[in-house]
Amino acid sequence: MITPIYAALLALLFLYLSFRTIGVRRALKVGIGDGGDKALSRAMRVHANFAEYVPLILLLLLMLELQLAGGASLMLHVLGLALVIGRCAHAYGVSQPEEVLHFRKVGVVLTFLVLLIASLWNLVLAVF
Length: 128
Fold this sequence. Notes:
84% of the residues lie in helices and 0% in strands. It is mainly α. α2 (38-68) packs antiparallel against α3 and α3 runs antiparallel to α4 (101-127). The radius of gyration is 16 Å and the shape is elongated.
């Protein structure tokens, strides 16, 4: 199985983002919302953006893996690795006090490419 490798790596990244957000909350003593703090707002958005995209993409990758029954493992690794790199780049770019737009763009493009490819590939396999 390939998808569990990337699910585990991404789960670890999600934990890191969660703990980082909690740490910023504790330091600022903000329980709900962002308290008007830009660093907390950025940490929250990185965490939320991850939670919005990663579960669906992992589900698509798992469905691909199950439909391919062991075939196209290289492509699944490429998609999984692209997703991990994309999420790391996005998290880094958005988390900086002065946003590093280049990293954010790379993160968005890689995430959307994996989402698009996995969606279309699943559709083709399911229909044809």
